[in-house]
Amino acid sequence: MKRKTAKEILAASFVELAAKKSVDKITIQEIVDNCGYSPATFYRNFRDKYDLITWVHTRGVAGIMGRMDTNSYDKWKQTLREAANWFYNEKEYLINLLRHTDGYDSFMRHMVEIHYSALKKYILSVNGNHELDTKEKMLVRAFCLGAVGLVCEWILGQYRVTPEEIAGVCEEALPEPLKKHLLQTRENGFNLS
Known about the structure:
Layout: H1 6-18, H2 28-35, H3 39-45, H4 49-66, H5 73-89, H6 91-99, H7 104-126, H8 134-155, H9 163-173, H10 176-182
């Protein structure tokens, strides 16, 4: 059995507190008291509470994005659905985070960077690692900015749709010039249906 690291224990303590209290009201002392650690242990692992928040989010989303198969368009679509389900399952925590921190813009930028890196890497893997031109990079960034903004609005209740529906909208929003890269797997004999 794998033992949890201090980072994991501190993160679990924070998430547990966030289930009961506004994120902006949670102190470092409360986080460490909740799990039996000292502030010194906290600061050996995180710069501040927002660093911990970023680590929790990155770990969840990057894990999903990291499983994206490099040879299947269907796997890319499945990854969108897995991410939407993760956001849905973490909805209360994310609502607390988005509504009760000064870090909304920072959180959005961080999410965009995770998604931008993963999508760009995926496209490069299916197009033979041919570098994207400036317009294609901008299209990847625009798609990620829009998808992340849409997902945050969905988390906050602006749209009452299922995770599958929000993932479907994100899939349909992918710009046509980028689809050609993702659909190149057809020439390699992979199943796209």
